[in-house]
Each structure stands twice: as C-alpha cells, then as structure tokens.
Write a structure and sequence with these properties.
single chain; Rossmann fold; 33% helix; five-stranded parallel sheet; 3 domains; seven-stranded mixed sheet; globular; alpha/beta
C-alpha cells in the first residue's frame, strides 16, 4: 500500500472538485493555497467558467490529461457520484474533505463511498478529512489559517483543528495527514508510508479509533520511528464526542492501552506533552462543576471532555464545524443561554481556521450575556494573540493551551 501513496505528497496534477470563486468556501481556500506548489491546479465546478483566473472544468472527465490527486469539497449527498467519476477517470488517490457522513448518522451514505472505493481500487483519505500538508513541496491542502514550518515530525490525526493548533504554536512538521472517518486509508497505511522517509524522526498520532488494531500493532512493531499516541474518547463522555466528530465508536481505553504497549509506542496523556509544548490546565479557570463546551474542533472537545469528566465535571458539548465563523459561535452562545440548565462555566474553544476569525469570535464573546461565565480557550499562539488581548481587557478568562 505505502508505495501507492506517493501521489498524495508528490502530486503533479491536483483536481479541486468544488473549487469556487467564493472566498468563504473551503474549495476556494484550498485552491488558493495550492497556488505556490509546482504542480497543475485543476478547478472543477459545473457552475463556473473561470476560477481565480484559471479555466474551470465541468467534470473531471472534461480534463483531457491524467490527474494524480482529486480533492473533493462538495455537499455530502453529491460525493458518491463524484467519487464514481474519479474512479472512471482513473484517478487513484482521493481526499474527501466533505463532511456529513457517519459522524452525522448518515452511515449508509458513508457505506456507499466505501463500496465505490473498493470497486475502483481507490486510495481514499476521509471523508470528513481536514486534508494534508507537505512542507517540502509547499503543498497545503487544508483550510487552516496558518503558514507551516518544516520539521522532522509527522502528525497523523483524526482531528484537523488540532493540527492548526500545533502549527500556530510554531511547531515544525515533516508532514500532516488528517484521516477523518477512515473509510479507506488508516493510521497503519501512513505509518508504513513514512517508514521510508529517512528524515522523519518521530510520528505523533491523535487517535479516536483503530480500524484494525492487530495490523496497527504489527506495523508499529516493525517501525524504526519513535511513535507517540494521544487518545481521544477515553471516557464514556469523550466517546460520545468522537462519535459525533468522526463517527468513531471506540473500544474500552484499557484495550487500546494494551495494544499500544504491545506495539511499542508511547501513550501521552495530552497533545501538549506529546509535542513538548508549555502546558496549562483548563480546570484552573473554571467555576463550579457544570460545564458547557462550544468548539470548532471535535478532537479538542473530546480531549477536554476526557480531562474534565475524569475530574467529576458534568460536561455538555456543542460541536461546530471546522468552517464555523463568528455567526455560528454567536448562535451557539445564544442556544446555551436559552437552555434551562444553569451552567457554571462555558468554554469557548477556537482552533485557527480560515473561516474562524479569532478577533470576530472574541467580540461575540464580549457581547454575550454569558460573558461572565465564559472561558475563552483559544488554541494557538500567533493567530489568536490579538483576540486574547481584547478579551483580557474585558476581563474575560482566557487560556491558550489545554489539550
């Protein structure tokens, strides 16, 4: 499998299906981000003639040359048909950014994708993937708002928001892969692939579930890399969040811990420790034991819920999409305000995304009737600094690292 994954990181032609001229759309963000990579960008959209000054094609079949990699960012109901078109075109490597599958209860729709992928022999990353980053080739197929730095660490994660968090703190990466719901490619495939890269010193994994625990143990046992695992959904409350995040229903954490020991990998209790970053504890900023979390990162929410429920907090969560903007945060805060439960603390989690403007979200917090109970948990450094300054001036509790 590993030799077939080269096109994800060394693609000479990339089709963005769902490319757009609307700069608030994921398809536009990704298309513009690929401007500086050396390969050919191919915008696909049946409703556009030109996108960002590039000729647009109605369908992938209309492009008369080969395509190494397809990136799908369209509404979920249209994805099976488009994936089938990719298979017929002979595109073997596909990233499905689109969400709205098993994580929202649409398991049958996700099963359709699996069958199509198997029929055409596709390497599918996702669905509900945040994308990939290859600093070496200047390839960034994500909607993160950060510029990446080069390093010797590979980050494999079922949460894209956590990658934004790490990158924003200035941590250099050799590569990043967001696995999403994992209908095809999983952690074992990518660990095998990066085994062949001599410049990779370690691999850090954020895992909500494993598709094949036995294979994971075998692959890690053969790997020469230092592998560290951070588990999301260790508690019963955390499992509920991961099921809403990537449709993952994980086994008992003790079973996973045993597998990790057998595989010879290190399990870290937090992402901060895994990356060697400065640690802060969210519990120091909370009032009372009833907590509501609003987050644009399911992975971050799962890690917070695991920590808090392990300390006897009663926690409820509203998971926003990674594309959430300030209006979405305002609606979520208004929703909490209408609930009959009187929460002691409301944690507003923000990971740096292209659509999630920290300063605009900060102003929504300041304007909220709940602001005296809000803890702003903005996970990052460079891109959240101004927003945190504004919040501090308004005496809002803030924390920058917590997972």
């Amino acid at each position: 499998m590993s030799e077939n994954l080269n096109s994800f990181f060394n693609a000479k032609s990339i089709a963005i299906i769902g490319a757009s001229n609307n700069r608030s759309k994921v398809g536009n963000v990704i298309f513009r981000k690929l401007k500086n990579q050396k390969g050919v960008r191919i915008p696909i959209n049946p409703h556009e003639e030109v996108i960002e000054n590039k000729k647009c094609y109605k369908r992938v079949k209309d492009y008369d040359k080969g395509i190494d990699l397809a990136v799908i960012c369209i509404p979920s109901k249209k994805v099976p048909r488009i994936l089938k078109e990719c298979g017929k075109k002979g595109i073997k490597n596909v990233i499905i950014i689109s969400s709205g599958f098993a994580e929202t209860g649409k398991t049958r729709l996700q099963e359709k994708l699996s069958k199509i992928g198997l029929k055409y022999g596709l390497n599918v990353l996702g669905p509900n993937s945040f994308g990939i980053i290859n600093p070496k080739k200047n390839i960034d197929i994500t909607f993160s708002s950060q510029n990446f730095r080069k390093g010797d660490t590979v980050f494999l994660s079922q949460s894209g928001g956590l990658a934004s968090y790490i990158i924003d703190n200035g941590f250099g990466l050799r590569a990043f892969v967001s696995l999403g719901n994992m209908i095809g490619l999983d952690f074992s495939d990518w660990i095998e692939y990066f085994e062949g890269d001599k410049k990779v010193k370690r691999i850090i994994c954020f895992i909500e579930k494993l598709n094949d625990g036995k294979r994971f143990v075998e692959v890690c046992g053969k790997s020469s890399k230092k592998i560290t695992v951070v588990m999301g959904g260790k508690t019963e409350s955390g499992k509920k969040i991961t099921s809403l995040h990537t449709g993952s229903v994980s086994s008992d954490h003790g079973i996973y811990s045993g597998a990790f020991r057998q595989a010879g990998v290190t399990e870290s209790i937090s992402l901060i420790r895994a990356f060697g970053l400065r640690e802060e504890h969210i519990v120091y900023s909370l009032k009372g034991k009833k907590v509501f979390i609003i987050s644009n990162s399911g992975g971050a929410a799962a890690l917070l819920v695991d920590e808090l429920s392990g300390k006897d907090y009663e926690v409820e969560v509203e998971n926003l999409k990674g594309t959430a903007n300030e209006v979405d945060y305002k609606k979520a805060l208004n929703h909490v305000g209408r609930l009959k439960v009187d929460y002691d603390s409301i944690i507003v989690v923000l990971t740096p995304q292209a659509m999630s403007d920290p300063l605009k979200v900060a102003h929504e917090i300041i304007g909220s009737k709940l602001k005296d109970r809000i803890v702003a948990c903005f996970l990052g450094r460079d891109s959240v600094e101004k927003a945190l300054d504004v919040l501090r001036k308004e005496s809002i509790s803030v924390i920058t690292m917590a997972v």
